[in-house]
Amino acid sequence: MQWRISRMILLVLVVALAAAGCDSGAGTSGATPTAQPPTPTPTTPTDSGKVILRVGTGDSGDGLEAHRQIIARFEAENPDITIQLEPVGNGDYYQIIRDQIASGDPPDILQIGDDAVPSFVERGAFVPLDSFIVSKDYPLDTSIYLPGVLDPGKWAGKQYLLPKDYTPLAVYYNKKIFDQFGVAYPKDGWTWDDFLHTAQALTKDINGDGQSDIWGVQLTAAWSTGFEYWAAAAGGQLVSPDGSGFVG
Fold this sequence. Notes:
Elements: E1 2-4, E2 9-13, E3 51-57, H1 64-77, E4 81-87, H2 93-102, E5 109-113, H3 117-122, H4 130-133, E6 154-155, E7 158-159, E8 161-165, E9 170-172, H5 175-180, H6 192-202, H7 227-233
Parallel strand pairs: 3-4, 3-5
Antiparallel strand pairs: 1-9, 2-5, 2-8, 6-7
């Protein structure tokens, strides 16, 4: 049995910081005063009269097709704006973004995971979106989002990020393994206890050496955010409500 987990992806507005005001290292220090973002300056139009907006993304390959479709529709509805997509297909995407911010040359808009919200906001790297959301000319109807979906984009009471997409936790399973060991397929309405018992039934020692060779569930260890789902489902949490530390 395997799991497929997709994280919330968010779009943010970025402002350039002077190198002296931006720490490009990983993490933040509680002793360091929070940087205040400078007032953003309007993007300079090109000679043709069009405005160019740079959009950064960590996606690559086939993952860029959705971006291109969104951009094509946006440009068709806004002919005076050209979107310049800047994918970073390899390397440390967040480090590259931090370096761009430190050098004063970040994208105007960028794609980022919800787990990185606090560190970037505390560097003063993002512009709050609240005034844009309630703009008289182009207000955003936040009712289009499910309850709670906007919350990961908030920090210190302000909205810094908006979700481009959001995928809930899902399960997919290997029918061949289920059939091999005579385990019933999952049914609608199954509980976490059902999941546990199924995973235990599929964990097998094939060669008799006392060690499991087949495991009932596979979880990624590369994305720590995914473990929050498990804690929440059991009524717990990994991080304190104010985000100041781990609670176990």
